[in-house]
């Protein structure tokens, strides 16, 4: 049996639950179907006589102005169809969200009247859910978002909560319209890491989790993103996730890391960190060749300084000497306080002669410094140092430190205030 177009259209409308409306723009005459009245709790007879004013009366005043604005935009040719969402009052007094769509059936050459025809769909549940999601998004300390990546690598956001503006300086609409605007705020040093982590999650479907820095209004902050991926049959992957600020956590983490590798008194690195960097440098030299040098320094008769002037003065000497070293080495050099008055200096890509000159400059510099005790009595400090380099020889880290220590002790046995170079 072949169905008539009218029967098929009625079946489709019945299946969607849509109410229909027709509005003659020339005569202002309107026609609504029974389902249109039913979604607001009425029958058409209860609303009779049904006129254009009936629709206006049932619309929320604030939304009515928006509807007229959308209609003018459509009639001016600035949109493919008339579309808006308005609140309309139900018979029992509460408000329903009604999604309105319509298109113009224009009279041919003005010979026939112009009809604007369309549908009304009740989208209250969707709007309530959207509102609850918006409230949830405002209540959590971060951004809620939906991110999509196509099999060809294209990506975009389909949802972004309002707080993206607080984190990235973008509106949710801007982020969804152009995802690159958001990625442009990621710190250049972290951008590739973010892209790589997304690609890995895309391929493995493991949870995406990444810490990265963003730059917003000239300020740099740490963010943490977490999202769960899901692959569609067409190969595209969608992540539902959240981004939160972890500045405080990162500051604490970096501070704990700093404390774990530095000497509290001088601010120099500690022995544990120094050995790690020495092992890395030795491994690099073993693989690529080159030469690096090591200087072991010990302040002469330091126990006597503590005994004569007290430990606070001794601590001040150590701090001042640490500053003196830092001013005379390169940023690539690693300086550590490894004992009470013992220091080690690692100088990558540095020949023995250059390291020996640095050690001699330090000896002269500390010898020329004048220190003052609590009672204003002046005194001077000297140092002894051993210098060794690693070039062709195959040294373990333990052996290298042992050779450097032996050179240092030889300098002390020969009268202190001198440099001993192991050749």
Unreliably modeled segments: none
The top level CATH class name of the largest domain: Alpha Beta
Mean pLDDT: 90
**Alpha carbon gap, first and last residue:** 105 Å
Assigned CATH architecture of the largest domain: 2-Layer Sandwich
Beta-strand content estimate: 25-35%
Structure description:
The chain is α+β, with helices and mostly antiparallel strands. It folds into three domains: 5-124, PAS domain (Beta-Lactamase, 2-Layer Sandwich), CATH 3.30.450.20; 140-251, 2-Layer Sandwich (Beta-Lactamase), CATH 3.30.450.20; 262-421, Reverse transcriptase/Diguanylate cyclase domain (Alpha-Beta Plaits), CATH 3.30.70. The model has no long low-confidence stretch (mean pLDDT 90). It contains 16 helices and 17 strands. The strands form four sheets. The protein has a five-stranded antiparallel sheet with strand order 2-1-5-4-3, sandwiched between helices. It has a five-stranded antiparallel sheet with strand order 7-6-10-9-8, with helices on both faces. A five-stranded mixed sheet has the order 12-13-11-16-17, with helices on both faces. The protein is elongated. Helix 13 crosses helix 14. The protein has helices spanning 5-16, 34-38, 44-47, 52-58, 61-75, 124-139, 164-168, 172-177, 179-183, 188-204, 247-261, 271-288, 302-309, 311-328, 352-368, 397-413, and strands at residues 19-24, 30-32, 82-89, 95-105, 115-122, 142-149, 155-160, 208-216, 219-231, 237-245, 292-299, 334-337, 342-347, 371-372, 378-379, 383-390, 419-421.
């Amino acid at each position: 049996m072949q169905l008539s177009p009218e029967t098929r259209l009625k079946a489709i409308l019945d299946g969607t639950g849509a109410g229909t409306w027709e509005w003659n723009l020339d005569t202002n005459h309107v026609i609504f179907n029974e389902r249109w009245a039913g979604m607001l709790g009425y029958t058409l007879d209860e609303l009779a006589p049904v006129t254009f004013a009936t629709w206006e009366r049932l619309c929320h005043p604030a939304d009515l102005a928006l509807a007229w604005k959308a209609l003018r935009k459509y009639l001016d040719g600035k949109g493919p169809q008339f579309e808006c969402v308005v609140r309309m009052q139900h018979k029992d007094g509460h408000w329903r969200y009604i999604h309105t769509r319509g298109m113009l059936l224009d009279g041919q050459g003005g010979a026939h009247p112009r009809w604007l025809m369309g549908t009304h769909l009740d989208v209250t549940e969707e709007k309530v859910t959207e509102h609850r999601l918006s409230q949830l998004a405002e209540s959590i300390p971060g951004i809620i978002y939906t991110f999509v990546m196509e099999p060809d690598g294209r990506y975009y956001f389909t949802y972004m909560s309002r707080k993206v503006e607080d984190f990235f300086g973008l509106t949710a609409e801007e982020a969804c319209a152009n995802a690159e605007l958001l990625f442009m705020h990621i710190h250049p040093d972290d951008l590739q890491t973010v892209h790589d982590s997304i690609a890995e999650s895309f391929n493995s479907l493991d949870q995406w989790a990444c810490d990265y820095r963003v730059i917003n209004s000239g300020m740099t902050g740490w963010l943490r993103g977490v999202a769960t991926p899901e692959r569609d049959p067409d190969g595209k992957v969608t992540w539902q996730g959240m981004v939160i600020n972890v500045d405080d956590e990162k500051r604490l983490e970096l501070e704990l890391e700093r404390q774990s590798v530095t000497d509290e008194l001088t601010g120099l690195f500690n022995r544990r960190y120094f050995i790690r960097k020495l092992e890395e440098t030795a491994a690099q030299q073993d693989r690529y060749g080159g030469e690096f040098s090591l200087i072991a320094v010990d302040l002469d008769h330091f126990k006597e300084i503590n005994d004569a002037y007290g430990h606070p003065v001794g601590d001040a000497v150590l701090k001042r000497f640490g500053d003196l070293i830092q001013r005379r080495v390169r940023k690539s050099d690693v300086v550590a306080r490894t004992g009470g008055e013992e220091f080690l200096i690692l100088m990558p890509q540095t020949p023995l002669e250059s390291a020996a000159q640095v050690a001699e400059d330090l000896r002269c510099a500390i010898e020329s410094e004048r220190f003052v005790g609590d009672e204003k009595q002046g005194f001077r400090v000297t140092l002894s140092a051993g210098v060794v380099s690693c070039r062709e020889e195959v040294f373990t880290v333990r052996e290298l430190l042992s050779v450097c220590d032996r050179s240092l002790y030889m300098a002390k046995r020969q009268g202190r205030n001198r440099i001993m170079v192991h050749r």
